[in-house]
Amino acid sequence: MTVVNMDAWLWWLIGAAVLGIALVVTTMPELGMLAAGALAGALASYLGGGLVTQVLVFAAVSVILIVVVRPVAARHRSQRPQLASGIDALKGRQAVVLERVDGSGAGRIKLAGEIWSARALDCEQSFEPGQQVDVVEIDGATAVVM
Predict the structure, then answer these.
(1) How far is it, in rounded angstroms, from Cα 81 to Cα 84?
(2) CA 97 from chain center: how many Å?
């Protein structure tokens, strides 16, 4: 069995490539940070550092990236804007009155392409067919409008 005689920096690059592929397959960001550490180890090797120096550079860069970048990424992941769905997505939208809407709840509006029963937020107010109204909330199967 013959051993391929390659420079150490090439082994580091191969390791970085393997970690990069594993990152894509598993979507574990820590593997990307280890891949960056392997690239740093390759650079240390290319610049003439010994094996101990290469391993220390790899470890230091990997640990620093995990300690610094991971919490920042976690913070950004948890601060994603929440997408409204279901009835929450209908609040604040405009609708068109199809049948007279007042405080009784007997009116009809067209909201997001669907026909909804509707009532006015203010019992004293009424809206005639063709008027634009704003949806304030959804109360069961009834849109509350103003």
Answers:
(1) 9
(2) 36
Question: Which residues are CB-neighbours of 106 under 8 A, at least 6 positions away?
Answer: 99, 100, 117, 119
Q: Does the predicted model carry a pTM greater than 0.70?
A: no
Q: Element (H or E) spanning 134, and its range? A: strand 132-139
Whether residue 55 contacts residue 45, with contact meaning beta carbons closer than 8 Å, is answered with no
Distance CA 89, CA 78 (A): 21
**Pair 15, 44: CB distance under 8 Å:** no
C-alpha separations of 116 from 48, 94, 108, 123 in Å: 74, 12, 6, 18
pLDDT in tens, 36-80: 999 999 999 999 999 999 999 999 999 999 999 888 878 877 776
Length of the chain: 146
The number of beta carbons lying within 10 Å of the beta carbon of residue 40 is 21
